[in-house]
Design brief:
There is one protein chain. With 285 residues, the chain is of the alpha/beta class. It folds into 2 domains: 136 residues, Leucine Dehydrogenase, chain A, domain 1 (Rossmann fold, 3-Layer(aba) Sandwich), CATH 3.40.50.10860; 139 residues, Rossmann fold. It is built from 12 helices and 12 strands. The strands form 2 sheets. It has a 6-stranded mixed β-sheet, sandwiched between helices. The chain has a 6-stranded parallel β-sheet with strand order 9-8-7-10-11-12, with helices on both faces.
Length: 285
């Protein structure tokens, strides 16, 4: 049996086992996907234990997803790393190769892009986009947003220096795509935008939205990378100012679909699983 898991601390909240089990069912794939709680500071040993235990029981550890706080640790143990993961400086997916090596990728950003373009039906090509935050979540999505063809992206952060560092790291990619990439303080963001993405934890912390409502164009798409109650504050703010609010549940499912395809060579029906998951959450399951 091919084994997969999600590794984190905490990890009991993760919906990944349900998502991947449903993908496997719909695609006719035989696999097992579980949660593994890994002690802080012991990620490499956690991976080694997963692979060793699988082999001891006649199974094959084929890959894992990685959640907080191990996305930086995961990058350190890989022999091969995708360009987008290198730019993000963080990893959320490992694939264990037959030769024993580890391939690392970050599917968060392409998951967000696919959710916006496919599920929300909002084109990113040629759009002007505001990315709020410059931490790990923002770093994970900036490269794929540039790849999707946004013509201008502003990264706004409380600490401007952190936003500038993220912009500088992606400057060559922006130049390759002919895109304008800027860094601004949260209270100094110029202009308004077609798409606004909240990559901070402001909603989760109960804080006010850290930018002015003037950044929203009429009918702009406003996405919080959190989902459920954690995204409610940002979405309510956006909708109160004439924008279309969206949470990060679609990104969660789409990034899982990218990992599933990388592992199994089969593209799962992400839109179907997203619809099912939204329906189950709506009735409190």
């Amino acid at each position: 049996m091919d084994l997969y898991c999600v590794m984190g601390n905490p990890v009991e909240h993760s919906r990944s086992p349900h998502i991947h089990a449903r993908f496997a069912e719909l695609c006719g794939q035989q696999l097992e996907y579980t949660r593994r709680l890994v002690p802080i500071g012991a990620f490499a040993e956690g991976v080694a234990s997963f692979r060793r235990e699988a082999a001891e029981h006649g199974n094959i550890a084929s890959g894992c997803n990685v959640t907080v706080p191990f996305k930086f640790d995961a990058a350190a143990i890989a022999q091969h790393t995708s360009e987008r993961a290198l730019l993000a400086q963080a990893v959320n997916m490992l694939r264990f190769e037959a030769d024993g090596s580890i391939h690392a990728d970050n599917t968060d950003g392409i998951g967000l892009v696919n959710d916006i373009v496919r599920n929300a039906a909002v084109p990113l090509a040629g759009c002007e986009l505001l990315l709020i935050g410059a931490g790990g979540a923002a770093a994970g999505v900036l490269g794929p947003l540039l790849d999707a063809g946004a013509s201008r992206i502003v990264v706004a952060n409380r600490t401007v220096g952190k936003a500038m560092a993220l912009v500088q790291r992606h400057a060559a990619l922006a130049l390759r795509h002919g895109a304008t990439l800027e860094a601004w303080a949260l209270d100094e963001v110029p202009g308004n935008f077609d798409v606004v993405i909240n990559a901070t934890a402001s909603s989760l912390a109960g804080d006010a939205v850290p930018v002015r409502a003037q950044v929203l164009r009429p009918d702009a798409l406003a996405v919080d990378l959190m989902y459920g109650p954690a995204a409610a504050g940002f979405i309510a703010w956006a909708e109160a100012h004439g924008a279309v609010g969206r949470d990060g549940l679609g990104m969660l499912v789409e990034q899982a679909a990218e990992a599933f395809e990388a592992w199994r060579g089969v593209r799962p029906p992400a839109a179907q699983v997203l619809a099912e998951l939204r329906a189950s959450l709506a009735v409190g399951q």
